[in-house]
Amino acid sequence: MQTRIRPGPGRNVVVVGTQWGDEGKGKIVDFLAPRYQVVARFQGGPNAGHTLEFDGQKHVLHQIPSGIFRRETKNIIGNGLVIDPIVFQKEIESLSSFNLNVLGNLYISKKAHIILPTHKILDAAYETLKGEKKIGSTLRGIGPAYQSKVARQGLRIGDVLSPNFLDKYEEILDNHKRILSFLEYPYEIGDAEAMFFDSIAFLKQMHLTDTEYLINDCLKNGDSILAEGAQGSLLDVDFGSYPFVTSSSTISAGACTGLGIAPNQIGEVLGICKAYATRVGSGPFPTEQDNEIGEELRQIGREFGATTGRKRRCGWLDLPALRYTSMINGTTQLLLMKFDVLNTFSEIPICTHYEMPDGSITDRVPHCFMDTPVKPIYKVMKGWKRDLHHVRKFEDMPSELRAYIDFIEEKAEIPVNLASIGPDRTQTVVRGALAD
Fold first, then answer.
1. Which pLDDT score is estimated for 4?
2. N or C: which end of the chain has fewer CB within 10 A?
3. Mapping DSSP to helix (H, G, I), strand (E, B) and coil, where does residue 329 land?
4. Of the listed 22, 123, 318, 340, which one is catalytic?
5. Both ends of the chain: CA-CA distance in Å?
6. What is the sign, positive or negative, of the torsion defined by CA atoms of 297, 300, 306, 309?
7. Residue 40: CB partners within 8 Å, gap ≥ 6?
8. What's the rounded Cα separation, in Å, for the pair 261 and 86?
């Protein structure tokens, strides 16, 4: 019997955010997609907003992998996601004008879980009950859908093909109604339920399949995989700034459980990081600039949620946090984003250490920022004070910008092989392994 030669793990990469999300993963996946036969989303839900810009147009994807605009790329929505059928249908329909073969090259895991209309109501109820301690949920039902999954009371994509789908739905619906009654939370499902079932019918037209077999067959055939994460590592349910986190595993390990691929198939982990830092919603943010500087970063960087439109909190780059997320992800290359936002700054501080409440200095992230508030210690770098539109190679960069990148690379102990100097695909400078 002939044995198929398995592809080397270096062919496959995981793209993760190393901050609190919104790092620019969508642009990177779209930029790198031509190098890979498969782009696969492995966690998250419709709260993700991956922004892509090319040919003068801006596109925001929520649940669909960012390789969808590449006709030759196979796109997979893995089992680790929770899917809102209503949002999914709208997202598919918004792509109709681009003449894409969506039905032909998009595959959805039967094991991905479904967000029900009552999941969104529960999300709002739980957030309301928290009062001042609310976590800043997007209220899209994602947390409650993951709760249902872990409680073994969820509805999965494969269930829509079952002859007793409606019975399964009604059983979960009744359970949600009992919870809402106990919470004494007023609600109306209204038209949402009708829209939900219309979207379920739409969903049945798609490739609903056992994607764990599909992706492993691709590996056996020698195809290379780009696994795309959502949110950021500091929002990971285990390693993030708990409890102000999302409900899934946002780190590179989540690609294995969210797609059904073995760890030895992952060769590279690309860590995406802004040249500064942002955060949406509540929770600790040591380097936040809640002042005129933060507002300047927000306006120049257009720091408003791609999905929610909410203002993002803005601050300086946090190296202790970056080293921490690089460690837990096994980051092999850093890809730095949005340098153009800093073009007008004369000085750019970078947090290198934390001062702890007892006065000690550390470069390690504490167990809980809330219980252990830290004071950032900064090194101030000189700004480059010029436009970067002409830059096409690292060698063309202003000396101040190269010094900024070199400092990050030195302290993170990870090569920086990509610099984004604008939102468009073409405004991307690469070197090293990414230039090969």
1. 36
2. N
3. helix
4. 22
5. 36
6. positive
7. 65, 75, 76, 77, 78, 211, 215, 225, 226, 227, 228, 255, 259
8. 29
Q: Which of 30, 50, 84, 340 is catalytic?
A: 50
Kindly list the distances between the CA atom of residue 163 and the CA atoms of 160, 168, 209, in Å, as whole numbers in the listed order: 8, 10, 17
Exposed / middle / buried, residue 112 (Cβ in 10 Å: 0-12, 13-18, 19+): buried
- Return the amino acid letter for 420: S
Amino acid 330 reads G
∠364-369-370 over CA atoms, to 5°? 160
What's the pLDDT score for residue 186? 93
Residues 172, 113: Cα–Cα separation, whole Å: 13
Determine the pLDDT at residue 50. 54
Report CA-CA distances (Å) from 47 to 22, 60, 136, 335.
11, 11, 12, 23
Contact 277, 285 (CB under 8 A): yes
What does DSSP say about strands 375-382 and 347-355: parallel, antiparallel, or unpaired? Answer: antiparallel
Question: What percent of the chain clears pLDDT 90, i.e. is strictly above it?
Answer: 75
Backbone angles phi, psi at 342, to 5 degrees: -95, 5
Active site residue 387: no
> Which structure tokens are listed for 227?
């696994």
Amino acid found at 329? N
Q: Which two tokens stand for residue 237?
A: 């349910």
Q: Which residues of 346-370 are buried (b: 16+ CB within 10 A; e: fewer)?
A: eebbbbbbbeeeeeeeeeebbeebe
CB 76 within 8 A of CB 51: no
Cβ distance 273 to 32 under 8 Å? Answer: no
Contact 275, 338 (CB under 8 A): yes
Q: What is the pLDDT of residue 310?
A: 82
Residues in the chain: 436
Is 50 one of the catalytic residues?
yes
pLDDT on residue 1 = 34
C-alpha dist (Å) from residue 37 to 6, 246, 331: 16, 29, 22
Whole-number pLDDT of residue 136: 63
Q: Give exposure, 132-161, as e/b (b: 16+ Cβ within 10 Å).
A: eeebebbbbbbbbbbbbbeeeebbbbbbbe
Residue 134, pLDDT score:
66
The span from the CA of 36 to the CA of 221, in Å, is 13
